[in-house]
Predict the 3D structure of the following.
Amino acid sequence: MIINSPINLELTQLSGQTSQPPWKQVGDCFSDVVLVGGKPTLFNVRQSQDCLDFSFTGDITEKEAISTLNYIYDMDFDLSKFYKYLSNREELKDMSEFCNGLRLFLAANPFECVISSICSANNSIKRWTKSIADIREKWGDNHFDAYYTFPDKSVIQDLYEDDEEESLFSENPCGNNLKSCGVGYRAPYMKKACEIFTDEINLSDIPEMDYDEAFETILKVPGVGPKVADCILLYGFNFKEAFPSDVWIKRIISYLYFDGKDISVSKVRDFGMEEFGDYAGYVQLYMFHYARMSGLMDKLKK
DNA sequence: CGTCAGGTAAAAA
DNA sequence: TTTTTACCTGAC
């Protein structure tokens, strides 16, 4: 079946968005299990022309399958309108040609996005995605042979933190701890985050909030600073007005808009949200990948 | 072996 | 309020 909106699937999958790790890739096909209304469903998606071709296995209707994929790949977002917006601005006009068909890769599971985003802080894409994949395989539920859902917060909350704690309390230590997944000093953040989601913050309240309230709320979670909070709201909850600002976005914004002058990450965030409004999230996504692919990043590295 | 990677928390200015 | 410092880990 085809979803008739343009997308570059591989670019979208491999762009390092902190919603979840990329789906399993075999040839040109990407697959993963998603809980749709609690029902495990295996999705297979691939590029067909410039659109999305998919099939699925699971006890849901075709309509539910389409609506799930529409959400995850943000297929209702009007890319051509966005490209017009970019082309009308001198600083942004080159970006669309370097990232044509790049879309948001939204979280199938917002809780997983929170943990992924915490894991991504001061980390590489390769390492955080492997950590999250390891957590799924160790403590998630197995479906359709080789696929795993992300474990529930109650599971993560009860895990040992590291080898030392495990060998202290366990009769046969066997890597049943968070740090064995390479999350490093983020392990206690993850566990405390789960506690907070049990007795203080209800993640399902977030979509009802306005941006500032959602931001202040999610910022209370251990391991979540401003950059990670914006990522969680953008990739996990589809708040498109988020403008996650890290050192790279700072360098790029500084180069494009402030004549290379050094400005704080916090100012960059304010600037991006003010300047780009509801397009802020997409501009951030395109900006980062434009810089990577155009060579601007190498130029700014020194 | 030292440096670095898409920051955060805690301490200090 | 804004700046500095230590920090798991794996790759180079």
Summary: The CA atoms of residues 39 and 202 of chain A lie 22 Å apart.
